[in-house]
Amino acid sequence: MVNVLEDYVDFPELRVPTHLVDSAVTVDQIASIAASTRAALGVPRGPIAHMIRTLEAAGVVVLTMPPESDVREVDAFSTDIGRRPLVLLSPFKDDKARSRFDAAHELGHLVMHPDVEPGSKIVEDQAHTFASQFLAPDNDLLPDLPEKADWEALLAAKRKWKISLRALIFRAHRLGLWSDATYLRANKRLSAEGLPERGPLGPREQPVAVGRAVAMLEEAGFGVDRLAAASQLPESIFRDVVLAGSEHRPVVSL
Protein backbone atom coordinates (compact mmCIF):
# COMPACT_ATOMS: atom_id res chain seq x y z
CA MET A 1 0.00 0.00 0.00
CA VAL A 2 2.79 2.44 0.86
CA ASN A 3 4.47 1.64 -2.45
CA VAL A 4 1.24 2.51 -4.29
CA LEU A 5 0.88 5.80 -2.40
CA GLU A 6 4.44 6.67 -3.38
CA ASP A 7 3.42 6.37 -7.04
CA TYR A 8 1.10 9.34 -6.47
CA VAL A 9 2.65 11.47 -3.70
CA ASP A 10 6.14 12.31 -2.50
CA PHE A 11 6.79 11.28 1.08
CA PRO A 12 9.71 12.99 2.86
CA GLU A 13 13.15 11.93 1.72
CA LEU A 14 14.49 8.96 3.67
CA ARG A 15 17.24 10.27 5.95
CA VAL A 16 17.76 7.44 8.45
CA PRO A 17 21.49 6.65 8.62
CA THR A 18 22.97 3.19 9.09
CA HIS A 19 25.55 2.47 11.81
CA LEU A 20 25.90 -1.29 12.09
CA VAL A 21 27.09 -2.50 15.49
CA ASP A 22 28.13 -5.78 17.05
CA SER A 23 27.93 -7.13 20.58
CA ALA A 24 31.12 -5.28 21.59
CA VAL A 25 29.68 -1.78 21.05
CA THR A 26 29.87 0.40 24.18
CA VAL A 27 27.34 2.75 25.74
CA ASP A 28 29.51 5.72 24.75
CA GLN A 29 29.66 4.51 21.16
CA ILE A 30 25.88 4.13 21.03
CA ALA A 31 25.54 7.63 22.49
CA SER A 32 27.74 8.90 19.66
CA ILE A 33 25.57 7.05 17.11
CA ALA A 34 22.44 8.60 18.63
CA ALA A 35 24.02 12.07 18.42
CA SER A 36 24.98 11.61 14.78
CA THR A 37 21.46 10.32 14.04
CA ARG A 38 19.96 13.44 15.62
CA ALA A 39 22.21 15.51 13.36
CA ALA A 40 21.26 13.48 10.26
CA LEU A 41 17.57 13.96 11.03
CA GLY A 42 18.00 17.69 11.70
CA VAL A 43 16.97 17.41 15.35
CA PRO A 44 18.01 20.55 17.29
CA ARG A 45 19.63 20.37 20.68
CA GLY A 46 17.27 19.79 23.59
CA PRO A 47 14.02 17.85 24.00
CA ILE A 48 12.35 16.35 20.93
CA ALA A 49 8.97 18.02 20.51
CA HIS A 50 7.28 15.07 18.77
CA MET A 51 9.05 11.74 18.31
CA ILE A 52 6.65 10.32 15.72
CA ARG A 53 6.72 13.50 13.61
CA THR A 54 10.52 13.26 13.74
CA LEU A 55 10.35 9.74 12.30
CA GLU A 56 7.82 10.71 9.64
CA ALA A 57 9.87 13.78 8.64
CA ALA A 58 12.84 11.44 8.18
CA GLY A 59 10.89 9.33 5.68
CA VAL A 60 9.78 6.54 8.03
CA VAL A 61 6.16 5.39 7.75
CA VAL A 62 4.60 5.03 11.20
CA LEU A 63 1.40 3.09 11.85
CA THR A 64 -0.57 2.11 14.93
CA MET A 65 -1.31 -1.60 15.12
CA PRO A 66 -5.06 -2.33 15.02
CA PRO A 67 -6.64 -2.76 18.48
CA GLU A 68 -8.23 -6.09 17.49
CA SER A 69 -4.79 -7.57 16.84
CA ASP A 70 -3.33 -9.83 19.52
CA VAL A 71 -0.40 -7.50 20.19
CA ARG A 72 -0.64 -6.74 23.90
CA GLU A 73 2.73 -8.38 24.50
CA VAL A 74 4.39 -6.35 21.71
CA ASP A 75 5.30 -2.72 22.43
CA ALA A 76 6.39 -1.97 18.87
CA PHE A 77 8.27 -3.41 15.92
CA SER A 78 9.90 -2.18 12.73
CA THR A 79 10.88 -3.47 9.31
CA ASP A 80 12.59 -2.11 6.22
CA ILE A 81 11.46 -4.74 3.71
CA GLY A 82 9.70 -2.19 1.48
CA ARG A 83 10.82 0.99 -0.23
CA ARG A 84 11.04 2.74 3.12
CA PRO A 85 11.10 1.62 6.76
CA LEU A 86 7.91 0.98 8.70
CA VAL A 87 7.46 1.40 12.44
CA LEU A 88 4.34 -0.08 14.06
CA LEU A 89 3.34 0.94 17.58
CA SER A 90 1.02 -0.67 20.11
CA PRO A 91 -2.44 0.89 20.47
CA PHE A 92 -2.61 -0.24 24.10
CA LYS A 93 0.22 1.87 25.49
CA ASP A 94 -1.71 5.14 25.81
CA ASP A 95 1.15 6.96 27.53
CA LYS A 96 3.16 9.65 25.77
CA ALA A 97 6.46 9.01 27.54
CA ARG A 98 6.39 5.25 26.99
CA SER A 99 5.21 5.43 23.36
CA ARG A 100 7.90 8.02 22.54
CA PHE A 101 10.51 5.67 23.98
CA ASP A 102 9.13 2.79 21.89
CA ALA A 103 9.36 4.88 18.72
CA ALA A 104 12.95 5.91 19.52
CA HIS A 105 13.77 2.27 20.34
CA GLU A 106 12.58 1.17 16.88
CA LEU A 107 14.62 3.95 15.28
CA GLY A 108 17.62 2.45 17.08
CA HIS A 109 16.93 -0.90 15.43
CA LEU A 110 16.60 0.72 11.99
CA VAL A 111 19.91 2.53 12.48
CA MET A 112 21.96 -0.21 14.16
CA HIS A 113 20.24 -3.54 13.35
CA PRO A 114 18.56 -3.35 9.93
CA ASP A 115 19.45 -6.97 9.12
CA VAL A 116 19.52 -8.46 12.62
CA GLU A 117 16.88 -10.83 13.97
CA PRO A 118 15.16 -8.94 16.83
CA GLY A 119 14.54 -10.24 20.32
CA SER A 120 17.98 -11.01 21.76
CA LYS A 121 18.74 -9.25 25.04
CA ILE A 122 21.93 -7.72 23.66
CA VAL A 123 20.17 -6.22 20.64
CA GLU A 124 17.23 -4.96 22.72
CA ASP A 125 19.55 -3.39 25.33
CA GLN A 126 21.43 -1.62 22.55
CA ALA A 127 18.18 -0.20 21.16
CA HIS A 128 17.18 0.86 24.70
CA THR A 129 20.45 2.73 25.10
CA PHE A 130 20.01 4.39 21.71
CA ALA A 131 16.47 5.50 22.59
CA SER A 132 17.61 7.00 25.90
CA GLN A 133 20.46 8.92 24.28
CA PHE A 134 18.39 10.01 21.27
CA LEU A 135 15.57 11.41 23.40
CA ALA A 136 17.81 12.97 26.05
CA PRO A 137 21.60 13.00 25.52
CA ASP A 138 23.54 12.63 28.78
CA ASN A 139 25.21 16.04 28.69
CA ASP A 140 21.94 17.84 28.00
CA LEU A 141 19.88 15.89 30.53
CA LEU A 142 22.40 16.01 33.38
CA PRO A 143 21.67 19.62 34.53
CA ASP A 144 17.97 18.74 34.94
CA LEU A 145 18.54 15.67 37.13
CA PRO A 146 18.43 16.19 40.92
CA GLU A 147 21.22 14.84 43.11
CA LYS A 148 18.67 13.20 45.40
CA ALA A 149 15.17 11.76 45.08
CA ASP A 150 13.51 15.15 44.62
CA TRP A 151 10.21 14.18 42.99
CA GLU A 152 9.21 17.73 42.07
CA ALA A 153 12.49 18.16 40.19
CA LEU A 154 12.00 14.78 38.53
CA LEU A 155 8.47 15.72 37.45
CA ALA A 156 9.80 18.97 35.98
CA ALA A 157 12.41 16.98 34.03
CA LYS A 158 9.68 14.59 32.89
CA ARG A 159 7.59 17.46 31.54
CA LYS A 160 10.58 19.03 29.79
CA TRP A 161 12.08 15.91 28.19
CA LYS A 162 8.84 13.91 27.87
CA ILE A 163 10.42 10.75 29.23
CA SER A 164 9.22 8.64 32.15
CA LEU A 165 10.17 8.97 35.80
CA ARG A 166 11.46 5.40 35.67
CA ALA A 167 13.82 6.38 32.84
CA LEU A 168 14.94 9.51 34.70
CA ILE A 169 15.86 7.71 37.91
CA PHE A 170 17.74 5.10 35.88
CA ARG A 171 19.75 7.86 34.22
CA ALA A 172 20.40 9.62 37.55
CA HIS A 173 21.84 6.40 38.92
CA ARG A 174 23.84 5.51 35.82
CA LEU A 175 25.35 8.99 35.63
CA GLY A 176 26.56 8.69 39.22
CA LEU A 177 24.25 11.24 40.81
CA TRP A 178 22.42 8.68 42.94
CA SER A 179 23.65 5.91 45.20
CA ASP A 180 22.42 2.34 44.79
CA ALA A 181 20.25 2.78 47.90
CA THR A 182 18.57 5.95 46.59
CA TYR A 183 17.94 4.31 43.24
CA LEU A 184 16.42 1.20 44.81
CA ARG A 185 14.14 3.25 47.09
CA ALA A 186 12.90 5.33 44.16
CA ASN A 187 12.24 2.22 42.08
CA LYS A 188 10.31 0.62 44.93
CA ARG A 189 8.19 3.73 45.29
CA LEU A 190 7.33 3.80 41.60
CA SER A 191 6.53 0.09 41.65
CA ALA A 192 4.24 0.57 44.65
CA GLU A 193 2.42 3.43 42.90
CA GLY A 194 1.98 1.35 39.75
CA LEU A 195 0.83 2.56 36.34
CA PRO A 196 -0.13 5.01 35.03
CA GLU A 197 2.88 6.86 36.37
CA ARG A 198 2.38 10.15 38.17
CA GLY A 199 2.72 13.34 36.13
CA PRO A 200 0.93 12.14 32.98
CA LEU A 201 1.97 13.89 29.79
CA GLY A 202 -1.24 13.20 27.92
CA PRO A 203 -2.19 10.61 25.30
CA ARG A 204 0.37 8.90 23.12
CA GLU A 205 1.71 10.55 20.01
CA GLN A 206 0.04 9.45 16.78
CA PRO A 207 1.13 9.27 13.13
CA VAL A 208 -0.34 11.46 10.40
CA ALA A 209 1.64 10.97 7.17
CA VAL A 210 -0.33 8.12 5.57
CA GLY A 211 -3.68 9.67 6.49
CA ARG A 212 -2.66 13.06 5.07
CA ALA A 213 -1.34 11.46 1.88
CA VAL A 214 -4.66 9.69 1.24
CA ALA A 215 -6.64 12.83 2.10
CA MET A 216 -4.60 14.80 -0.47
CA LEU A 217 -5.24 12.16 -3.11
CA GLU A 218 -8.97 12.09 -2.37
CA GLU A 219 -9.10 15.87 -2.83
CA ALA A 220 -7.37 15.38 -6.19
CA GLY A 221 -9.98 12.85 -7.27
CA PHE A 222 -8.17 9.61 -6.43
CA GLY A 223 -10.70 7.82 -4.24
CA VAL A 224 -9.90 5.10 -1.73
CA ASP A 225 -11.58 2.54 -4.00
CA ARG A 226 -9.15 3.38 -6.80
CA LEU A 227 -6.12 3.35 -4.50
CA ALA A 228 -7.17 0.04 -2.98
CA ALA A 229 -7.58 -1.51 -6.41
CA ALA A 230 -4.10 -0.28 -7.41
CA SER A 231 -2.64 -1.85 -4.27
CA GLN A 232 -4.55 -5.12 -4.90
CA LEU A 233 -5.97 -4.97 -1.39
CA PRO A 234 -9.61 -5.17 -0.30
CA GLU A 235 -10.93 -1.66 0.29
CA SER A 236 -11.72 -2.52 3.92
CA ILE A 237 -8.08 -3.42 4.61
CA PHE A 238 -6.86 -0.32 2.77
CA ARG A 239 -9.10 1.86 4.97
CA ASP A 240 -7.81 0.08 8.09
CA VAL A 241 -4.23 0.97 7.13
CA VAL A 242 -5.20 4.58 6.45
CA LEU A 243 -6.79 4.69 9.89
CA ALA A 244 -3.63 3.21 11.41
CA GLY A 245 -1.60 6.05 9.87
CA SER A 246 -3.94 8.86 10.92
CA GLU A 247 -4.29 11.00 14.02
CA HIS A 248 -7.41 10.43 16.10
CA ARG A 249 -8.49 13.23 18.42
CA PRO A 250 -11.11 12.84 21.14
CA VAL A 251 -14.53 14.23 20.25
CA VAL A 252 -16.33 16.46 22.73
CA SER A 253 -20.07 15.89 22.76
CA LEU A 254 -22.31 18.67 24.13
Automatic annotation (TrEMBL):
Residues 56-172 form the IrrE N-terminal-like domain. PANTHER family: ANTITOXIN HIGA1, BLL7220 PROTEIN. This is ImmA/IrrE family metallo-endopeptidase. It comes from Curtobacterium citri.
